[in-house]
Design goal:
By secondary structure, this protein is of the alpha/beta class. The protein has two domains: 3-33 and 285-384, no CATH class; 47-278, Spore Coat Polysaccharide Biosynthesis Protein SpsA, Chain A (Alpha-Beta Complex), CATH 3.90.550. The chain has 14 helices and twelve strands. The strands form four sheets. Strands 3-2-1-4-7 form a five-stranded mixed beta sheet, with helices on both faces. A hairpin with a 2-residue loop joins β11 and β12. α1 (3-33) packs across α6, α1 (3-33) packs parallel to α12 and α11 (297-307) packs antiparallel against α12 (312-334). It is globular. One of its GO terms (molecular function) is ceramide glucosyltransferase activity.
Amino acid sequence: MTAAEIIELITTVLTLAGLAYLLIALLAARAFRREPRSPEPTAWPTVSVLKPIKGMDPRRYAAFASHCTQQYAGRYELLLGLSDPADADVLAEIERLKTEFPTTAIRAIACGERLGTNGKVSTLSQMVPHALGDVILINDADILVGPQYLTRIAADLAQPNVGMVTTPYAGRTSDKPGLWARLEGLGIATDFLPGVLTSRLLDRGVRFGLGSTLALRRTTLEAIGGMTPLLEHLADDYELGARVHAIGMRVVLSPEIVETYVPAYDFEGFWQHQLRWARGVRDARRAGYVGLAITYAIPWALANVIATGFALPSFTLLSLVLLARVALALGVGVGILRDGQVLRDLWLIPLRDCFGLLIWAWSYADDTVVWRGEHFRLKRGILLRP
């Protein structure tokens, strides 16, 4: 075979593999949509919601407020952990929150000590001893939730042998987002979540956690050693869920959808955030991450069109890939996440997938990550100072 024929064969195989992935992901999304909601438990546990905070952004107050309007039959408290206890902007917003929601138990916890390279886990480690609840629920500072959030999470956690509940999330951009924010939000809805659902189908369950929600009983957290063992890990949410799974308990992906805020990224911000996520997944799921390349079927199909000299069968294959990719984007982004931004940005999917493949390849180039302006070196999932 000539070099051109070898390239044609490789791109054809990769395109077919990508198409197969898209079809499996569609089945995974269908299976998830058909899952019934958990019945309400006979007793409602006291829940401590822990949100680690570093600075403020335009939508963070709305995220805090959404946790203060919960229609929950049990007791709950909202703990806000301050990595900088002297941050006047954050303190002012917390006082505003207490004034606006006087019936909600809200506490600010000073967490100024840096215990490890992972600043978020350092904050959480200092927050946990202050939590009064039987259930510890951790979510990122910008996560915005619906009024039934705690009720539905508690119902899922009450099911047999469930050790952790985590949730899908949609990425909400500003009213006039730039290209890079659109690509980030589109990636969450049409790339990241389909991958999670496919993993759930193939693994017959979820074996990791997502930072959008990490809900577990205090006894479960103690059984896995608490937060301290994660102080040097980059993918702390993934690792927390993996440790719950390792002790023989189930990690459940709840049908409850939450929202995260997508900043107005410039190219550098988008690139660094995507690389940090990619390298975290690379080290957490080394074997699975290698196979991630085939999920980007559109770039492979385009390469196949070129490799075949624009032959008609290659265009047929490209059409099938585009059809399956759009169906998956709509099925997950709109059907599950109810994210109308997917309709707005559907035309960007080919560009998003090309960037996805490029980021996947570049993630192997070195082991550096940038997180909130700090530079680290990554070694098997552990954050090291350069």
